[in-house]
Fold:
Amino acid sequence: MKKSVAGTALALALATSASMGTRAPADTPPGAVEKLASLCTPEGIGAVAASLSSTKVEAKPVKFGAINAATKFTPAAGSLPAFCQVAGSFVTNPATGKTAGFLATFPANWNGKYLQLGCSGHCGQFYVSNAATPAVTVTAQGYPGQLIEKGYAIFATNEGHEGMDGASWAIKPDKSVDPDFVDDFLYRADKVMATMGKEFSTAFYAKLNGTAQKIRRAYFQGCSGGGRDAMVAASYFPDAFDGIIAGSPYNSPVMTIQGSAIGAAAARQHLAHTDVPPG
Structure:
């Protein structure tokens, strides 16, 4: 059954126990850690990526807050289960070959659920959307490692460009605007990844467990720039998720207009109190 926009919009305000709530972390199946370590290699991930049909995926290092390798296995430590992280690129526009970067996190104790994290600012990085970030507690993720503890298969994208500067990544050498980069940033990278990420997750855990897998629930969560991503998902592809959580959405066009208006108002105020000869 199709999910309504109204039903999805309700999830914008609620972080229910079915998604981000108080459920205890799933148990790690016997032998899962050893299998995970064996699968979390360039060869193992390459085989998983080759099996995907929704879009072309390549495992490779991704800059700016992601891991510095195509794959990284992290052993269990304390309450944190063992997990595998995969970095790479996926095609967002087959007609042009345009790609975006992604970072996937696969815990050994998968709960059958898919979680897509929004980006921050003008994106181009994974500083907030890396589920394994140890240094800070961020609004979009709870305490460090919490999402991994709960067993989500987690995906994030840099939305088709690298680096945190405002918009130079969208300008071609001839100074014209590149619509491929703009479309990836505004909506397309997240939309394509919503399909690719779920397919990648089921293929990964099918390889790990030796049996077919399916997604029990899919969620989108983000704050600030990621909150904008969440609102876009709710507006343009709500059927991709069972719940969407938008925290403090950042509206860059409105903020640009507001910032310009504040500057103009300040200039008018300054002129009003300055002796300027008429004419």
